[in-house]
Design the sequence.
């Protein structure tokens, strides 16, 4: 069975705030550790990964090495569109083009223009950049939240309906073929074990089927709490609310019992949400809640270790 890390491109998305960027970084770490030259791509002017790894930012749009075998790269969709139009316009300077009404009109009127040029850049990363001598075994796309991600992934078909011939049409087809090929591209949803996040993962599956005739390869469920108590143990714990055996002050016993019940109910609710995913036959990868004051690089490495062998 082909590992997800053997793909050329992994697209990671899900509801906002569920830990997509964290999972993208962890998967990048894991792939690099296994000997794959990996780049984690983010859209927009983002520097979070570089800051997390303590790396120095380079020129806008340039790859930043985080550690051996692992880099990050931010793609600014507006800049990507400008560069693309400048290439089509020959000697017209970027400054003149950016200030022209034609550029502004095209950017607003052409459906999916920013998205398709961003995806073209991602396609190029999967094939290598001869000018910069950048070649990667794996491109991990830290995609926007679900709705915007589906718009990004639908861009080749949307834009291809307009540009049917010529080099633009050819590039669009290359991107579409990459996204539809299960041997080259994998799709991962990240979710918390909450009703809204799981529902959004299910909607993502529907969107992938509609736009690309693809399915999610797996759902990573982040921040899972352990199941600490059996029903029998909870019965014994709740007996403490009546004062227990007298060795523990009644107020403390009741507070401990309430805390145990809250943790038990939260864990049970999470398991119910996991069951919703499994009923749809998803491959579900659980990541335990990482305790700490903040999510630092050590925590991301811990998550990478948890995912090892599952991808």
Sequence:
């Amino acid at each position: 069975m082909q590992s997800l890390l053997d793909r050329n491109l992994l697209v990671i998305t899900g509801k906002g705030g569920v830990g997509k960027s964290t999972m993208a970084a962890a998967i990048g770490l894991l792939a690099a550790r296994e000997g794959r030259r990996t780049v984690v791509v983010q859209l927009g002017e983002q520097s979070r990964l570089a800051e997390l790894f303590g790396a120095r930012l380079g020129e806008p749009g340039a790859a930043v090495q985080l550690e051996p075998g692992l880099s990050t790269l931010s793609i600014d969709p507006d800049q990507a569109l400008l560069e693309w139009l400048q290439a089509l316009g020959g000697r017209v300077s970027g400054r003149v083009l950016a200030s022209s009404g034609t550029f502004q009109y095209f950017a607003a009127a052409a459906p999916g223009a920013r998205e398709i040029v961003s995806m073209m850049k991602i396609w190029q990363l999967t094939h290598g950049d001869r000018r910069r001598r950048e070649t990667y075994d794996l491109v991990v796309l830290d995609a926007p939240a679900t709705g915007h991600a589906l718009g990004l992934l639908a861009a080749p078909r949307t834009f291809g309906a307009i540009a049917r011939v010529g080099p633009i049409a050819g590039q669009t087809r290359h991107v579409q073929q990459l996204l539809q090929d299960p041997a080259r591209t994998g799709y991962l949803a990240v979710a918390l074990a909450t009703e809204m996040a799981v529902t959004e993962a299910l909607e993502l599956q529907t969107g992938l089927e509609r736009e690309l005739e693809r399915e999610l390869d797996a759902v990573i469920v982040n921040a899972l709490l352990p199941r600490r108590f059996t029903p029998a143990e909870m019965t014994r714990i709740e007996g403490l609310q009546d004062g227990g055996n007298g060795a523990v002050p009644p107020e403390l016993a009741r507070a401990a019992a309430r805390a145990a019940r809250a943790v038990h109910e939260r864990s049970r609710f999470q398991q119910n949400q996991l069951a919703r995913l499994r009923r749809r036959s998803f491959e579900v990868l659980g990541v335990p809640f990482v305790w700490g004051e903040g999510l630092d690089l050590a925590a991301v490495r811990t998550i990478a270790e948890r995912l090892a062998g599952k991808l």
In short: The first strand starts at residue 9 and ends at 14. The chain has twelve helices and eight strands. The beta strands are 9-14, 38-43, 64-67, 70-75, 138-142, 185-192, 218-224, 284-288.
